Amino acid sequence: MVSLSGFFVGALVGITGVGGASLMTPLMVLLFGIHPATAVGTDLLYTAITKMAGAAVHHRHGHIRWRLVGLLALGSIPATSVTLWLMSGVDRKSAHSTDLLTTSLGIMLMITALILLFRDLLMRYEIKWLQAHRSPSPRAIAIGTVVLGLVLGTVVTLTSVGAGAIGVTVLLFLYPRAAINNIVGSDIAHAIPLTLIGGIGYWVIGDVNWVLLGSLLIGSIPGIVLGSYAAPRLPEKAVRMILAVILFIVAAKLIAL
Asked: Which of 24, 81, 89, 137 has the most other CB atoms within 10 Å of its CB?
């Protein structure tokens, strides 16, 4: 069942480019009864491993802007370290910590679903804004990128959600003239150190299930490959809308726990 779930999520990732952590972590919590902290830690390592292949492809095609990756990491790596340090000092199995983790995860899923639903509208608004205003200075854009990394480092370490849909959307606002492939490639490259450090941190504090991780990878890797081949033949926007509705339902279920 875990491998089949991994295959399903992997196929969605291959088709839409999002949905990995957004579905994998809540699936582990709701369907298999895994504690939220263990689900997040396991999913962070899962994400780091699966993103490596994607980053290699983007690097080979020259789609990674390493200065952008560095600016994101300048904010995210310290934020990840601080978040892990704070989490290591609390009882993650207590009712209060469990409620905090599940509620945080539910809120991040809601935000991800809203971005999936209204991404096109947001992009149209951005074009109108650029036509009416002067572009921000390179210094302001660099500071905004570091702040984005800071936010992603915190929320991704806490919930494993946000590096894809939220990160890419904000980067498109910060770098509207950059090619979408460069934004996606840079976001994937940045997600590797972010999730790897987070996953190792969860491993050190005892919240990674290695058997579960292996089962997920067995299913998700062929799922991603199949989804990538099927993507050109499927209505991406319709699949994205369905995914957003699923995320809303899952988020509501998590918040209600």
From this structure: 24
Query: How many Å is the Cα radius of gyration of the chain?
Result: 17
Six-digit token string for 15: 């088709």
Q: Could you tell me how far CA 221 lies from the centroid of its own chain?
A: 17
CB 222 within 8 A of CB 7: yes
What is the per-residue pLDDT across 226-248, written as a single tens digit (0 to 9) for each?
776 665 676 767 777 777 888 88
Residues 39 and 25: beta-carbon distance below 8 Å: yes
Q: Six-digit token pair at 42? A: 């396991």
The sign one gets for the Cα dihedral 245, 246, 250, 253 is positive
Does the reported pTM lie above 0.70?
A: yes
Burial class (CB in 10 A: 0-12, 13-18, 19+), 102: buried
DSSP symbols for 9-67: HHHHHHHHS--HHHHHHHHHHHTT---HHHHHHHHHHHHHHHHHHHHHHHHHTT---HH
Residue given tokens 């490259």 in the structure block: 189
